[in-house]
Specification:
Radius of gyration: 20 Å
Strand content: 5-15%
CATH superfamily of the largest domain: NAD(P)-binding Rossmann-like Domain
Distance between the termini: 58 Å
CATH topology of the largest domain: Rossmann fold
Largest sheet: 6 strands, parallel
Order of helices and strands: EHEHEHEHEHEEEHEHHHHHH
Number of domains: 2
Number of helices: 12
CATH class of the largest domain: Alpha Beta
CATH architecture of the largest domain: 3-Layer(aba) Sandwich
Structural class: alpha/beta
């Protein structure tokens, strides 16, 4: 397989690079932050000085960037992918962003003969190799990146072509709103358990042992983290959840469908962030709820 480019070598991007290199795929990378550059270089990634330089070395470019503004800067900004990518390049946005941003990027790159695909990751950083993907883009573009996606997913059964460009992120935003709702509910129930003198660990242990109908993988992971007090080394931070849930709320309003529960979920997590927990794993949310009751 030819060299694959990765823009953004944080937790997700670095895990992706590691998996590709373990599978014998050469990886070129770009990241604006020196610590990330140092770590990636030491891991064997061929680092570039700009997205444009990277685009000249890789026919498939995977993007792991924080948000919509970063996406536009990396693709269309000075020294961006658009200024260095030859015709036939496929740019794959694996971040969770506003679907409209991906559509605009696709429209801007199409006259240059460059394909754009949205492929937000459905899974945790450590799950690389078994990630699922919600894919938005043309059949032709997806065919060009299938081999790369199979390395990261491990199976065609985890590749879901949702529809045209933008649809992958629409599905991902709905998925993350459900995660936010589960987290907010777990925060209140776990906080109430502690408030009443019940063991949080017992609450989750009983649900797991009974295979209760309320049990989901998300609730199990959140409950276990709460019981063990593990909020550092986050798989998904409170602030990241706020970002994604806001994008979902905005998307719903664009369709004339304001979300009542979604707004409540957003309120809970903004309260958590204001109390100083924004950079922690979202399982920490129960602490902010409990603090309100003790105030």
């Amino acid at each position: 397989m030819d060299t694959v480019g990765i823009v953004g070598l944080g937790v997700m991007g670095s895990n992706c690079a590691k998996k590709l290199m373990e599978s014998g795929v050469p990886v070129a990378g770009y990241d604006p932050y020196p610590p990330a550059v140092k770590r990636a270089s030491e891991a064997g990634v061929s680092m570039c000085g700009s997205p444009a330089e990277l685009a000249g070395k890789a026919g498939v470019i995977l993007m792991f960037v924080p948000g919509p503004a970063d996406t536009e800067k990396v693709v269309l900004g000075e020294g961006g992918i658009a200024s260095g990518a030859p015709e036939g390049t496929v740019v794959v946005n694996m971040s969770t962003v506003d679907p409209g941003v991906n559509i605009r990027m696709g429209e801007a790159l199409a006259p240059k003969g460059i394909d754009f695909v949205d492929a937000p990751v459905m899974g945790s950083p450590s799950g690389v190799g078994s990630w699922a993907f919600a894919l938005g883009g043309s059949d032709e573009a997806l065919a060009k990146i299938k081999d790369v996606l199979l390395v990261l997913s491990g199976s065609e059964e985890k590749l879901f072509h949702i529809g045209p460009l933008g649809h992958g992120n629409k599905l991902k935003l709905l998925n993350n709103m459900m995660l936010g709702a589960i987290d907010a509910c777990a925060a209140e129930t776990m906080a109430l358990a502690e408030h009443m003198g019940l063991s949080q660990k017992t609450l989750i242990d009983v649900a797991v042992a009974a295979n209760a109908r309320v049990l989901s993988n998300a609730y199990k992971e959140i409950g276990t983290r709460i019981a063990e007090g593990r909020y550092d080394g986050p798989t998904f931070t409170v602030d990241m959840l706020i970002k994604d849930n806001k994008l979902c709320l905005d998307m719903a309003r664009e369709y004339g469908a304001p979300l009542i529960l979604g707004a409540a979920v957003d309120y809970v997590h903004r309260m958590v962030s204001v109390q100083g927990y924004g950079a922690k794993d979202h399982a920490v949310s129960w602490k902010a709820v409990a603090k309100n009751w003790k105030a």
